[in-house]
Amino acid sequence: MKSSFAVVERRAEHAARFFYSHLFWHHPGLRALFPSSPEDMERQRDRLFAALTHVVAHLESGTLLPYLRDLGRDHRKFLVGPEHYAAVGASLLAALARTSGEAWTPDVEKAWTEAYQVIADAMTAGAAASAEPPWWDAEVVRHLQYGEDIGVLTLRPHVPLPYRPGQYVSVSSARVPTTWRTYSLGNAPRPDTTVDLHVSRIEGGRLSTVLVRDVRPGELLRLGAPGGDLVLRREDRPVTLIAAGTGWAPVRAMLEDLVAHPPDQDVRLFVVARDAAHLYDRPLIDGYAASRRWLSVTYITPAPGRHRNQATERLATALGHRGLWREQDVHLSGPAPFVEETAGLLEELGARPDRLFHDAVPASGAARTRPLGFGEWFLDRPDPHWHNPAGRAPRDTG
Ligand SMILES: NC(=O)C1=CN([C@@H]2O[C@H](COP(=O)(O)OP(=O)(O)OC[C@H]3O[C@@H](n4cnc5c(N)ncnc54)[C@H](O)[C@@H]3O)[C@@H](O)[C@H]2O)C=CC1
Hints:
Domain FAD-binding FR-type: 133-233
EC number: 1.14.12.17
InterPro entries: Cbr1-like_FAD-bd_dom (IPR008333), FAD-bd_FR_type (IPR017927), FNR_nucleotide-bd (IPR039261), Globin (IPR000971), Globin-like_sf (IPR009050), Globin/Proto (IPR012292), MRET (IPR050415), OxRdtase_FAD/NAD-bd (IPR001433)
Bound molecules: 1,4-dihydronicotinamide adenine dinucleotide
Protein name: nitric oxide dioxygenase
Pfam families: FAD_binding_6, Globin, NAD_binding_1
């Protein structure tokens, strides 16, 4: 298996293209489950094929089976049913056979077939065993737009979401079928079950543009189960919360939790935005700061006339003026390069890496705005960690 895999890796792009051509040729009906735009399909090509090969290459790992079961549970929202696994398996095997050349022997074929069966069995078992709905239908009950690019959508899920403050959900709209993106929630579900989704519009991003500019109250969105590891650790240590852009949403949820259950230790909050207009929750924060002695707040925007990212340099200066980083639990949220840069700085300032919390930063150090070319894929292959099915809230949190 490993020897044929090495050959396939060198020809990954060819294998992935063959895989999808084979799949859609033999099962044209499956095409509708995949994104329709060429860009999203390119991204999908990277993802699915990288995931399949990664998983097969790590079959010995003890954590793989639980991961696959969770992955199967979460794939139900993509309308993946048990019958699809055989079709995908046949096309994967065909792509591997075509790409492996002479390394494809009967023994290798048998090993890959068995390995794929283990994956398919674990994922279908995970899907069948789940008590969760495949997705949550949620009605838009309010839509606020701040400036050109930020939308805060209040949603009422038909069934309450299990959620821990700081987590994100994947979101889909019938206006952009088969496209799912993750966005953070800015609050734990209220007594009326509503939650706020904070969305920053990405230039050319079809779903984010629709969510910020077009979606109206009364519409339904689909939500995947909340996930992510950026949740408050209440371990009786001073807390620093650092948010940039709509990275403010999970920090807002954590701050609300702290306000509801005041901490014994001090909390430092740094809110970074591209300009003052994007500090859209400032009145709320100012209200908290005025009445909570344990909370100190620093707002950071770029100097007048400077690029939005200069705010990050200003933040670095502000962080450098504070001390006692070793004692702090630091929660960081924002654009991937911001998180990476700020986490590095905090470590230099003395923060403990094991007390520095943020969601996974995409491989290659930057949020990818386009699919990887073959050379990049080969030289700097991303870990398939775009989806972390762990870190769910306990079911009884309502
Ligand atoms: N859990 C998390 O980490 C969350 C992350 N996000 C991410 O936060 C981002 C929010 O986007 P916007 O609101 O449009 O933010 P934005 O583009 O307005 O940026 C806000 C600030 O982040 C810093 N920044 C942005 N890009 C940077 C770069 N390349 N290098 C250094 N600093 C940089 C700058 O100081 C900028 O003023 C999205 O990428 C979203 O995926 C959003 C929610 C939660």
